[in-house]
Amino acid sequence: MSRGSVAVVGGSIAGLAAANVLAQRGFEVTVFERFPTGFESRGGGLGGVDRQLYESIRADGATLRQHGPGGWFYGDLWRYLRGGLPDDAVRHGVAVADVGDVAAPTVDGAAYDFVVVADGGWSSLRRFVVGDQQPVYSGYCLWRGLMDLERAPSFRSFGGHRSGYFDTGGFPISCADGRTLYNGGFYLRMPEDEVARPASGAARQVGEKKRALPDWYLPLYEKLWSHVNGGELVRLWRAMAEHGKVTQHAVWEFCADRVVNGRVVIIGDAAHMASPRTGAGAYTGLLDAHGLGVAFDRHGDVDAALAAYAVDGKRRANELHRASLNVKRQFVDPSRPPVPARELLAQLEAGGRQCSLN
Fold first, then answer.
1. Could you tell me which residue ranges the FAD-binding domain spans (predicted)?
2. In the list 80, 203, 311, 318, which could disulfide-bond 199, CB 3.0-4.6 Å?
């Protein structure tokens, strides 16, 4: 017997996790995702995952298989969670911009007992819970690289390297389709006017395409990291730029003032955005989904369960936000404004050393 109907808006990791958890508990769940296709081949890597948590979340409890050493490919984790739901549970190509009355929400013309909003850090529906509250730029960016490992020049170690406020490193990812990828990252302080605010809606689909790197990027990377292991990091990133994909991901931070309003719940990045250096962004999204399940295990009534989740989910968002602020202190000194990238490169080429490098 169904316990009611739920709409989940957003079909990424957090949304699919919530859908699995609620389906386990007898709800009829429909997931609405604006992208026209699934995410099997999308994304980069996670250094580690809580396999027990994933397996407790998937509706049929299937085993999450590690395909080899290294990290986990996002697309494989997405496929695992998608596999726990019926084929018709996810509706692709449906953009949801309104839920109507939060006390009796509707999605795509149909009424639901409650709605879970999991449409990401630049959510179009978060406003129904937190109003005008928006993410804040942290002061630094992650430049993420991804390529087939076979295209990488030989190098001795993956690891990580730090120099003052700059940080770089990476790890291999073994994928379900047999590929091995290299997932690299380079953290760089940048003024806010040098970063692009992420696109939303249909424009985000275009953003999946490879963009040209700024002409200063590789020369700056070389100036900062040519001293490491005989320049192997520089050779690695030049290979990623040529054979793979290198993209800018400005680090935005967000902690929702509340996570429930009426019968609308926000989870995942819609409720909290944090630095990738916390290693807990996607993990906290999974914990949100798990927390919804716990709330419904303890409270049979929808309103009572959502009231309990409102406390638990807000606590989790606060904890992640504190962790992200702690990481921020490693990269951002409020007394030293970030130097624009081109200016920093010019200073390095001239042989100067900036206080922001030490």
1. 240-319
2. 203
How far CA 251 is from CA of 132, 134, 147, 191, 289, in Å, comes to 20, 13, 22, 12, 23
CA dihedral 156, 158, 159, 165 (to 10 degrees): 110
For 308, the enclosing helix (H) or strand (E) is helix 302-331
CB 318 within 8 A of CB 290: no
At position 334, the amino acid (one-letter code) is P
Q: What is the rounded distance in angstroms from the CA atom of residue 100 to the CA atom of residue 103? A: 9
Instruction: Name beta bridge partners: 184.
Output: 145, 170
pLDDT per residue over 281-309, tens digit each?
A: 899 999 999 999 999 999 989 999 999 99
* Calpha distance 183→22 (Å, rounded): 33
In sequence order, what are the beta bridge partners of 152?
Answer: none
Integer-rounded Cα radius of gyration of the chain: 21
* Angstrom distance (rounded) from CA 69 to CA 102: 45
The overall pTM is greater than 0.85: yes
